[in-house]
Q: What sequence folds into this?
């Protein structure tokens, strides 16, 4: 976790345009006033003109502006891309109506071309081949059957469906059992902690944290997890979650510090766009529903935005508490207005 801490490591990452460093730190360039992710393709500035920051918030408060090239106003590109591919795989595994790549691209809100390119890059085969593999797996329920492997997977250099799946899961960083089950069920680990704003449950999949919820009792929180994720197999596992639990508590105490807790955002395409937009509201500021609607290019959708905010499953890390009424008044909060006020106060 401690990579890219020293200036030497950071400079090296920038010079090598290391995408793994994206999300760990950003750098501002004094001569342009712009700040970038380490992998930005723009011309490397002189080291003496660079300033390093742990988070985009810090770069902003130091007066630097977002880079239009590497889009520091958004999550790092590799996160966004991987997330899109994971979502595509989930849809293919879960939704029998999605039989065509066009429909898949439309559901995800991207072009067919873009989806195909990314899918090929991350999974190694195109989405159509992957769909066939999933279908076949559903029909035969056997990962080792050589007789059912498609030509396309053979062409991609795999001699078995199981070899294909295990390679895909490694590429995307997902547990093999999740693939075997075709995402119809998914293992979800959860644990509790006392936070500054009350009892909190955190749940994670192999992809990242998928839920942060507040409540009055453990029973109530488990019930909410079950309702929100009906297909998940819940496993109580505080040991495995302890790092994330601690990181979230730390984040609640120091909201302006960068956190690189990986998220597994699961919602409809519209909800996810809203939730991603919420993540761009800097710590210490607020936005109105109308402003968020504008940010996702749907200026008339303020009410739908409000609804997406209230269904956000990842409290605090997707900061829906930073959305307020147009006149600046606190509006409702899924976990109570008192909590919302406390969270906003702690960011001042
Ligand atoms: Zn840049």
A:
């Amino acid at each position: 976790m401690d990579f890219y801490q020293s200036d030497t490591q950071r400079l090296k990452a920038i010079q090598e345009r290391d995408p793994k460093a994206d999300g760990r730190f950003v750098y501002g360039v004094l001569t342009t006033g712009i700040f970038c992710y380490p992998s930005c393709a723009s011309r490397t500035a002189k080291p003496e003109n660079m300033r390093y920051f742990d988070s985009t918030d810090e770069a902003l408060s130091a007066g630097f502006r977002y880079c239009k090239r590497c889009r520091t106003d958004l999550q790092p590109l590799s996160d966004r891309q991987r997330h899109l591919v994971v979502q595509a795989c989930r849809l293919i595994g879960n939704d029998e109506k999605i039989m065509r790549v066009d429909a898949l691209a439309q559901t995800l809100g991207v072009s067919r071309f873009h989806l195909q390119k990314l899918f090929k890059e991350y999974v190694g085969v195109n989405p159509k081949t992957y769909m066939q593999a999933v279908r076949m797996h559903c029909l035969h329920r056997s990962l080792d059957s050589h007789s059912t492997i498609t030509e396309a997977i053979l062409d991609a250099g795999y001699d078995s469906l199981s070899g294909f799946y295990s390679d895909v899961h490694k590429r995307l960083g997902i547990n093999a059992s999740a693939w075997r089950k075709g995402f119809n069920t998914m293992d979800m680990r959860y644990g509790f902690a006392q936070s500054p704003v009350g009892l909190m449950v955190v749940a994670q999949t192999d992809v990242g944290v998928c839920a942060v919820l507040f409540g009055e009792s453990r029973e109530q929180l488990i019930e909410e997890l079950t309702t929100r994720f009906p297909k998940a197999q819940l496993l109580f596992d505080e040991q495995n979650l302890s790092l994330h639990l601690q990181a979230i508590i730390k984040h609640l105490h120091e909201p302006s510090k960068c956190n690189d807790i990986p998220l597994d955002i699961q919602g409809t395409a519209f909800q996810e766009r809203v939730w991603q937009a919420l993540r761009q509201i800097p710590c210490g500021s607020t936005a109105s529903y109308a402003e968020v609607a504008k940010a996702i290019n749907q200026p008339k959708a303020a009410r739908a935005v409000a609804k997406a905010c209230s269904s956000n499953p990842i409290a605090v890390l997707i900061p829906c508490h930073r959305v307020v009424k147009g006149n600046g008044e606190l509006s409702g909060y899924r976990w109570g207005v008192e909590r919302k006020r406390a969270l906003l106060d702690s960011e001042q």
Remarks:
- Residues 141-147 have pLDDT under 50 and may be disordered.
- The CA atoms of residues 88 and 104 lie 7 Å apart.
- Residues 36, 40, 42, 67, 69-70 surround zinc ion (CB under 6 Å).
